[in-house]
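Structure, all two chains, one model.
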Amino acid sequence: AQTVTQSQPEMSVQEAETVTLSCTYDTSENNYYLFWYKQPPSRQMILVIRQEAYKQQNATENRFSVNFQKAAKSFSLKISDSQLGDTAMYFCAFMKHEDSNYQLIWGAGTKLIIKP
Amino acid sequence: EAGVVQSPRYKIIEKKQPVAFWCNPISGHNTLYWYRQNLGQGPELLIRYENEEAVDDSQLPKDRFSAERLKGVDSTLKIQPAELGDSAVYLCASSLYAYSYEQYFGPGTRLTVT
């Protein structure tokens, strides 16, 4: 069974700093997707960034980028020039590519606090 | 375009009482998900609908939970009777298709069972 582990329950950094959230996963699959979702306090979950396992190039979305290490089964999220609005729970998630189930497997989350 | 709508946002009930949650997905989205999220944890899938058909309900506690998605649009999740351990946030999400990369989430319903 697939599992997703986020080893940092909580992190805090000063505004404008760079922060990296870690995520590791366990799977025997070769084709899959990885996601980072953001859940701000009392607001809905939104997709931050996704990575297809067959792509070697790391995904980037503005200030958000990932470091995808397939062999190590690691998928970290880097937030550059952090802003107060980045304060949220961040969840790493995994989805098999060739499976009619299409189920997301979620990590426990990392609470990120951006301090002014 | 409206996002995923859920109601109520908050609900407090006594144990053994029934409760229902409502979700209206994004227009045109065929796939609808109900998740339960306990404090400090990631979401746990309860049930997934493809149009009006429940295609994955393996994690739904069927002795007390039920769900329906009439006409393949909005959906209702019901708990009867509620237990203390049901206190959680119930999230609804939708996607264009099951294999769509992105799921769009509603704001959730925070249930407190006393």
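The longest strand of chain B covers residues 88-95.
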